[in-house]
Amino acid sequence: MTPASPELYRDPVYDGATDPTVVIADGAWWMFYTQRRATHPDPGPGVAWVHGSRIAVARSGDGIAWEYAGTLEPDAAGLALREGPPPSVTDRTHWAPEVIHDGTKWRMYLTEIDGVPDRWPGFARTIVEYVSDDLSRWTLRGPLALSSERVIDAAVARTPDGLWRLWYKDEAGDSVTMVAASDDLESWRLDGVAIGGAPHEGPFVFELDGWWWMIVDEWRGMGVYRSTDAVAWSRQGDQDAVILGAGEVAGPGFGHHGAAVREGEKLWFYYFGHPARAGFGEGDTMDDRRCAVYRSQLVVSDGVLNTGDAL
Questions:
Q1: At the fourth CATH level, which superfamily is domain 17-307?
Q2: Cβ distance 175 to 201 under 8 Å?
Q3: What is the sign, positive or negative, of the torsion defined by CA atoms of 46, 53, 31, 59?
Q4: For residue 275, what are the β-bridge partners?
Q5: pLDDT tens digits for 127-173?
Q6: Which phi and psi angles does 287 have, rounded to 5°?
Q7: 127, 151 contact by CB (below 8 A)
Q8: Phi, psi of 92 (to 5 degrees)
Q9: Contact present, 213 and 226 (Cβ < 8 Å)
Q10: Domain limits of the chain?
């Protein structure tokens, strides 16, 4: 079994760093993550603590030692990086940033929810696009018209046929992974279900060792799918097979929603876990809600994706 990955980063404000995505720009490493309000002293009833979150930013010189930089705060133009903690009271929810470079500029695909819901059903969730030249100042482009009004967890990549594809979870469509395609990142057409079956979330798609891979969060570890063209996918192993399951992450938990970044010949997968327990729910204690960011190298051997070194 792969050695358990040690904790890499904890959010210094609410100790709820989740859904990390990492990019490297001019030698600097940037981590964008959902700043879940795990230790907020008065978040509200029910699951309000999972909502009301900002996108927080941490920076690093090597991808290992991280320093908190602040949060992306909404303004009239879009989002701007501001030092320090977010406001103690918020009026909207930001989740699960996906950040890519299109060859000219940075693009962020962000899940947004109006308000701070205290329960799961009944609230619209939208994937919204922003653009940036410097990763600090983000201009709003607008929401994407996708398959329902309850879509989250965008992942975007340019695939072998030259198209851009966006994979996402549709909570109104059995909570499976849907896909949309675009010629130019300006307009999108819906292409249906990419990964069906049991509910899951947090897709991330990348190329490694001549194959295309999709990793999805199954709330017990990460399911893996493989493709030659990033269109037709087949499961790695049987339906019970996962990577970053119990025992592969420090503490009693397992890997959740993450994203990969390429450093030379290495591909690092950053993801989050619960150091104190294996999951969370409405009745959890504050300590149960705490989260940490981990990373593992992704490697392919004989056509099988697995994890390797953590540092």
A1: Glycosyl hydrolase domain; family 43 (2.115.10.20)
A2: yes
A3: negative
A4: none
A5: 999 999 999 999 999 999 999 999 999 999 999 999 999 999 999 99
A6: -65, -35
A7: yes
A8: -155, 170
A9: yes
A10: 17-307
